[in-house]
Write the structure tokens for this entry.
Amino acid sequence: MEHGVWPSTFPALGQQVNGHPLAYLDSAATTLRPRSVIDALVDYYSADNANPSRVHTLASRAADRLSSARQTVARFLNAPDPAEIIFVRGTTEGINLVAGTWAVANLRRGDDIVLTVAEHSSNLMPWTRAARQTGARIRVLDVDDEGRPRLDQFKNILSKRTRIVAFNHVSNVLGFVNPVKEMCALARHAGARVVIDGAQGAPHVRVDVQDIGCDFYVFSGHKMLGPMATGVVWGRRDLLDLMPPYHVGSNMAHAVDFDRAEFEHGALKFQAGTPDVAGPVGLAAAVRFFEAAGHETLRRHDEELVQYGLARLAEVHRLRIIGSQSPERRVPVFTFVMEGHAATAVARALDGRGIAIRAGDMAALPLLKRFGVSEAARASAYVYSTHADLDRLADALHALGK
Ligand SMILES: Cc1ncc(COP(=O)(O)O)c(C=O)c1O
């Protein structure tokens, strides 16, 4: 990949931060946006902005933009039907939607919800709340010392009481790509429904929801070059049609009166009120960016970043990577602790050199505790990241670790 093109493609990369060129290594939190996504937003607002409907020309254009974005996202996921694409504000809202509708309507006392210890708070709290509301029980699958889910244990945890299993495609701490297809097969064999938190998966791994075999796949557009506060729930059409709505109000129902309402079908039933149009339009532009760059090219770039990043970080004294140090099944997300340095102090020191990383509990405290810590630092690279960014990271950490 031609690294030299990125500053012109990603305008934010052209700036200096604290007197240094920006090295943006916080992409797992939110990515930078390419010019094509920014232009799509400006173009929508400049030309076609209206409350979507078929009653006047602009409204009709806005409706077409939304429907075309739905088709683009369906293609991105290989979803069989665009009516299965629910636009939400992000993974957090998406998982709350599934837990608050499917789970609350279907779970009973004595049922089990299975999660892994590596879940982000946004794929943990909606389930603990659903468990409290329904009397269901949470069961937690461990990971091994490399951060891989303990599939041996999974078989024992699953039972005929398991109604739903929710796990991440890629952990935001470990960067490990879970064997989601195998996990889905095991869960479905036990008769459970499967929800995949794709917040860190969709940005890096080619997603084919039909091949994976899940029931719901949820991701955030803003973690894959799309606009802030965009996200998607993909759900199997037969399940969507049986689920109660999430929010109720205009657009998701017809013939509404005090004593009745006729709900829309498929995804539309879950999108009450005036929809966001610019967000999905921008997200569709992000999908087209991936398609133009080529998934294979992006995958190879990721692989290179993983190998180079792991090698450079291995040279830093007193630095411990959380999870596997092998480049296999990995995306370029590097979480680490440095002996003698608080993670937040590390992040602040790097910021002084123009290097943006994250620090804290990563909204994944149970997993950090599993690895014996309560906070960590995380550098996460993406399509616009270069070896030079990772060199600057490693050199700055090396200077700190001396
Ligand atoms: C694995 C994982 N799940 C869920 C989320 C929540 O995503 P959002 O904040 O976009 O709702 C994140 C965000 O960091 C994440 O990394």
Summary: The chain has two domains: 3-30+294-401, 39-290. The mean pLDDT is 96.
